[in-house]
Design a protein that fits this description.
The structure holds two protein chains of two kinds.
Chain A (H helix, E strand, L loop, with lengths): L10 H8 L12 E7 L4 E9 L6 E9 L2 H14 L4 H5 L3 H7 L8 H19 L14 H21 L1
Antiparallel strand pairs in A: 1-2, 2-3
Helix pairs in contact in A: 1-2, 2-5, 4-5, 5-6
Chain B lengths: L2 H15 L6 E2 L10 H14 L9 H20 L7 E4 L2 H14 L7 E5 L4 H12 L3 E5 L9 H7 L4 E5 L13 H11 L4 E5 L11 H4 L3 E5 L10 E5 L25 H16 L1 H22 L3 E3 L11 E6 L4 H10 L2 E2 L1 E2 L2 H4 L6 H5 L4 H5 L1 E5 L6 H21 L8
Parallel strand pairs in B: 1-11, 3-4, 3-5, 5-6, 6-7
Antiparallel strand pairs in B: 2-8, 7-8, 9-10, 10-13, 12-13
Helix pairs in contact in B: 2-9, 3-9, 4-5, 10-15, 11-15
Amino acid sequence: MSSRVPLTYGKKVIELFKNPKNVGKIEGANAEALAGSLACGDMIAIYLKVDETSDKIIDAKFESYGCAANIAAASILTEMIKGRNLSEAWKISWKDVSDELGGLPQVKYHCGVLAVGALRRAIRAYYEKRQKPNWLPKELSQEERHALEEEKLMEILAKRSQK
Amino acid sequence: MIYSDLSKSIKELIEFHGIPKREVYLDYENSGLIIPEALRAMEEAYKFNGRGHPSITHLPGWLSYESLFKATSIFASIINCNPEEIVYTHSGSEANNLAILGSAVISPKGRRKIFVSSIEHLSVIFPAERLEERGFKLIKIPVDKEGYIDLDFISEHVDDETLMISVGIVNHEIGTIQDIKALRDITKDKNKEVLIHTDACAALGRIKLDMKELDVDLASFSSHKVYGPKGVGALYIKEGVKLEPIIYGQLSTQKLWPGVENVPGILGFSKAVETIYSNFTEYKSKMIELRDMLINSILNNIDHTLLNGPYGDKRSPDNINISFIYCEGEALTVELSMNGIYVSSGSACTSRVLEPSHVLLAIGRRYEEAHGSLLMKVTPFHTKSDMEYVLEVLPRIVNRLRSISPVKPSNR
């Protein structure tokens, strides 16, 4: 049975929802990726400008279609990764994103997951035509897997409802 | 999340949000605001004529009984039935549950089919689904793009095994006004034993309701949807129709719903209904004017918008349900709130479930269209200036959210 639980956002989430940082595309981005879908009701695009010699993230931006938590999670993640190496950025988990936002409500954990999923896809995209570093796992990480599962599930549900 | 954490973060959220300078409350689907006439009736009841238990032999009891009977008589005369045909519950959801489960518990052998429309309120759908788990056959009646039930489907499928049909006279989300009389005639023509239930919670105060003319067997009502207090529902049970209680305890004046009656609430409810119907013609045209002002202006001035439900006279006077494609509804509700405009959405996010509104999916809306929907209900007490304020704020918010989105109308 579906239920409605009270949903309270922290101050930080609302602040970033109202005034998100790093919104938009990057001119000359050398990595980008998308997670989620319109059918899911949430979708995050991450754009990265990476310094080719040091693998340092010079600039990071996002676009988001989704709820307040979704926008806030993507916004704070871009702030967390700017100036970091890709290997450091890879280590950021959905929990780190949630903590940085002052804690996401449980039903909004997936917003943190989706943001990290999009970032890790972007990092993989960056190494697609480059020498892959040892720290980059071959298997999908938890966040990437969850993003993929959500996308697949919604595709099935959306198709079924159109019948 | 544990309760103490929740209360701390909600306090912080409310402080940060602040009380907006201007407020327009339009979330009458989820929780209505009470009108002063009803509030005064309740205050008087709590102070004097509604304090006692109406079944006890002392003055406060007799006073409660007398005022309860008077309130019920007023309500019954407005919907044209006998006071004895009304049973109070404590919500519209309870009234719907009593109608569905109370009929099923004593269903005759071989009568195990229950029809509900695919756009009913969840307090109709969920009890029907519980019955399905217990061996009943649940049939969901398909609807067209405007939410009208398929009457041919009913005439094809209703048979000797059918126990009941439940279709709301006004849909709570998209405002479709169904032809319940046609539904009844077609059904009774196939099998006159079939019980007809209509959820009238979204209809009361918006259209005229006459139980004799509608000739249904059961009809549910909710107080707070008609600007009365929360905590009062009612079920009309046509004389001669048999139901079984679904909860047990000491009965009082209510045949099927144990526990002490919410007398002050019932007095407030009856007063609210009386107030609305004494001014019905004026209130109805006021609502239609405000509704159409919002609908027309939004559809004309904001791109990529879709009206959910029928247009014009076929739509409930209070209902506005519009999808803003490429926007997510929960984000819209949060930002509108910060501007003092309170609405709800059919997005999956607002109800914390995976799938968006079952009503919008049933009329053929795609997921992204349902996620971007806003539901607003106007009342006779709103003003044109309230609507102007909404129309000033809303486009700005829609544009901002669309500007953040990776999916732009142009690249689809």
